[in-house]
Amino acid sequence: MQHWTTEMWQIAGFGFVAGAIISYLLLRLTKGSVKKQAQTETELQQAKQQIEKQQKLLEKHFAESADLFKVLAQDYQKIYRHLAKSSDELLPNAQKTLFLQSFMNSDKSTAETSTNEPPRDYKEGSSGLFKAEH
C-alpha cells in the first residue's frame, strides 16, 4: 500500500468539499423546480375539476331551458287553439278566418311551410364576396 502525502490528502479534501458544494447546489436548484412542478400539477387538477363542474352546470342549464321552452311552446299552442275556437264561436259570420285551422288541429309546435325554395339571401345567387377578381 502506498503512503499518502499531504498534497494527496489536500486534493482529496478539496474534491470532497467541492463535491459536497456541487451536490448541495444541485439539490437546492432541483428541489425548487420539484416544488413548482407539484404546485403546477395541483393547479392543473383544480382547473380540470372546475371545467368539469362548469360543463355539468351548463348541461343542466340547457336541459332545463329546453324543457321550459317545450312547456312554453305547448302553452302557446293552447292559447292559439283557444283563440281560434273562440273566434269561430264568437264571430261566426266573419268572412275571413283569423286563425289557421290546420295549425289548430296539428300537434306540432311550429307551423311548417312546404316550399322547396332556397333561403331568400341565396335565391339570386352568391353575393360575390368570395369570387376571384379578374
TrEMBL record:
It comes from the Bacteria. GO terms for biological process: cell division; regulation of cell shape. The chain crosses the membrane at residues 6-27. The keyword Secreted does not apply. InterPro entries: ZapG-like. Residues 108-117 have a biased composition (Polar residues). Residues 108-134 are annotated as: Disordered. GO terms for cellular component: plasma membrane. It is a single-pass membrane protein. Its main location: membrane. It is found in: Cell inner membrane. Keywords: Cell cycle, Cell division, Cell inner membrane, Cell membrane, Cell shape, Coiled coil, Membrane, Transmembrane, Transmembrane helix. Residues 34-64 form a coiled coil. Belongs to the ZapG family. This is Z-ring associated protein G. The lineage of its organism: Bacteria, Pseudomonadati, Pseudomonadota, Gammaproteobacteria, Pasteurellales.
